[in-house]
Amino acid sequence: MTVVDKNLSEAAISASDIPVLEVESLAVSVRKQGIFKPLISDVSFSLKKGETLAIAGESGSGKSITSLAIMGLLPPPAVQVTHGAIRLGSTELTQCSEAELRDVRGNRIAMIFQEPMTSLNPVLTIGTQISEAIRAHEPVSRAVANARALEALRSVRINQPEQRLSQYPHELSGGMRQRVMIAMALALEPEVLIADEPTTALDVTVQREVLDLLRDLQAEHGTAILLITHDMGVVAEMADRIIVMKDGKIEEENETKALFSSPSRPYTQELLASVPQMGDGTKPAKQSKITGEPVLKLDNLAVRFDIHGGLLGRVTHHVHAVNKVSFDIAKAETFALVGESGCGKSTVAKAIVGLVNHTGGIEIMGQQAQLHDATHQKSRCRNVQMVFQDPMAALDPRMRIGDLIAEPLVIHNIGSVEDRRNQTLELLQRVGLPTDAAERYPHEFSGGQRQRICIARALALQPELIIADESVSALDVSVQARVLALLEALKEEFGIAYLFISHDMAVVENVADRVAVMYLGQIVEMGTSEQVFSNPQHPYTNRLIEAVPVPDPTHIRAKNIRLTGEIPSPVFPVGTSPEQLVLTDIGDGHLVAL
After folding, report:
1. What is the DSSP string of 488-543?
2. CA neighbours within 13 Å on the CB side: how many for 186?
3. Which of the two residues, 243 and 479, has the higher pLDDT score?
4. Under a CB-based contact definition with an 8 Å cutoff, are residues 431 and 42 in contact?
5. pLDDT digit string, tens, across residues 119-152
6. 110: which of 97, 141, 190, 265 fits an S-S bond (Cβ 3.0–4.6 Å)?
7. Average pLDDT, stretch 310-322?
8. What is the radius of gyration, based on Cα positions, of the chain?
């Protein structure tokens, strides 16, 4: 090697060590009644080109506040950076004006938010939104911006990108919307990408695709990624280094392998111990059997939606959302439904509680469910309660938490005012919230805390069956563990049955007595948790299990699967229907569509 080559090599190495982003002694405070209360304090870290740094911690630990401070998106004047520095290269972001920050956002530093549906404009097409982001920072024509928008969609491997340009956000699945957000964020090849819970609401297979995509794009462009997540499996697979935050401060920082193998702080140890594990051999085998009259019985349940078309608006196609689904749930049993978005899990739940029209039989506590019968519907609500995936949409923002939890008791005329008050406070304590939360409003809580409020509300009537539709997907692992332990304790104490809908296969394996795997509106495999997870028979079940991120940075996947594309459409012309699958018992009640 010549002296010139050596000097160039050393210069390249030193350039790669120069941080792209530096945060130094950052403090962010909120002003209440003229007094500043710290939200985060003394937060310092750096991020190099091509590196992935993960920030982990519970809700309210300061993860998202840190990212919003970096982006200059803190709501002024109530929340402000009160100390420290944020440097993007040679630019001091805390000293930039709003106009200067607008030039930085999207161009040099971009952000992917947790919920793409609320981040995308519902009245603009996908192509318009991506090209608008490009033209906001570069003086290019509309035609050039549209061509680059199409190329951005192709880079994130979205199927039929030309068609997607003219579609609106509501016409895309959750996974496709998230890929659109990634395409928009990377269209201008920013130096730093902040990914705030980018895969939390996604199914495991779509999550696997998004993670593979981020990894490939990072290798191609050298983008530095700041990953904010509570999924320690995602952290183990993606991060080079980890920062653990608690109460607005950095609790521990280390390289990924070192932190997972030997965490030094008790909080980090507790956080990692709370992570549900798949197939670790510690979970006792569940051998639940249906005994006596089941709490819920479905017999050939089917739900379809009409699609109108043509000049006269006639029904031209049917969406077979649920097709001939049958299963029972016994008292004090946890029955899990798993599958990708669009497979029909949530539609089954909505049919059970009477929110959609259906055919087939639904028996609740031995009584046939009747649609459009107000008296029967009120009784059904007393026996069956539902916890939805999005807690903010499920809670009235104008009502106090105490009134929201007590509302079911008021509707069913249960107890006196004092009794309802006492039961509300007890429920708050049972789900791990302080009693003074009763006087506050939903917007004053984090996403995880709002979900616990929804669970407390569902428990108010002491129902026979609780349908938990992704009820713990938004919770941090330690909070998730406490909530799942609470649900298990309530099941043991009151004999409550659960229909547990989730895309988190590790959680399902650890909590479910029996599992049904759904695909395109039909069950393709059903059996005990031990049967399905230790001996999966259907190829789709294997696909789901293989896609689960493992919270171990040394783990090597048995199969290097790369999942692409969306679930095939369940739309069929009028007069046709999907092929009816036949479940075969391969032994001890383990049913598989062969």
Report:
1. HHHHHHH--EEEEE-S-HHHHHHH-SEEEEEETTEEEEEEEHHHHHHS--SHHHHH
2. 27
3. 243
4. no
5. 899 999 999 999 998 998 889 999 999 999 999 8
6. 190
7. 79
8. 25
